[in-house]
From TrEMBL:
Keyword Acyltransferase: yes
High-level lineage: Bacteria, Bacillati, Bacillota, Bacilli, Lactobacillales
SMART domains, per database record: PlsC
UniProt source species: Loigolactobacillus jiayinensis
GO molecular function terms attached to this record: acyltransferase activity
Alphabetical UniProt keywords: Acyltransferase, Transferase
Protein name, as recorded: 1-acyl-sn-glycerol-3-phosphate acyltransferase
Residue ranges annotated for the Phospholipid/glycerol acyltransferase domain, each copy included: 92-209
Amino acid sequence: MIIGGSKKSVIENIEQNITTEKFNSKVEVNDATLSPAETSRLLAANLKRRQSARYAFNNWLARMIMNSTTKLINRHTEIIGLENLLGLENGAIVTSNHFSPLENTIVRQTLRQIGTKRLFVVSQATNLLAQGVVGYLLKYADTLPIGGDKEYMGREFPKQLQQLLNQQQFILIYPEQEMWFNYRKPRPPKRGAYYYAARFQVPIVSCFVEIIELPRRDNAEFNQTRYRMHVLPTIFPDTAKSARENSIAMMQQDYAQKKQAYEQAYGQPLNYQFSTSDIAGWRG
């Protein structure tokens, strides 16, 4: 399912970022930009909204919509490695490759197999400005916005994470940061997700989504695709290591697992030389 218009400029930006090794930089066009003051006001307004009865109702409704959407999008999704989730009794941070506004439904579908009913997703504050149904879901469907507000990121955001993890919830954090549309390859991760896992002594649920192209047109530029979720071995912090040591070790292990999963899924070594086949379904 393709959201938005032509992706030609996005793919050109992906190729350019690969050339300059900016693997975690933005490639989408026409995304909103905010000043630090605007970001602070947006995050504060979101916190206030979450305390209202109206938010509680809309959160319930948004989760019902997400549940239905998850079932629809993933009716043909395969899940491999579900045994790696057995025995998880507490909260965890989930990492996965970030290639679509809807790929979090694949993670949701996977966690539903072990009885997990909710998934919290860390998202850029600018996504709160999105309109329509997608905008509604980004505001209300268990999203945790982040932005460049030092006070918020230093105190409020970690407090939210800790509360949810204490409630044994699962939190999806994209270590690749920015979404690269239908990009098949795992990108080098940033350390944030692993820092929080180490700080709060919770495991990393390591995931890699394989994108399978179908011989059917989706729109003028893309064929349809389906997904195969690879649930990789869960990564636990080492109680003998510091938070920094743990975060680096967990990040390195997660990237190594995703790299191996990519190479096994696609039958080729991982490199970052751009090819049109890197963009799943693209007929460009």
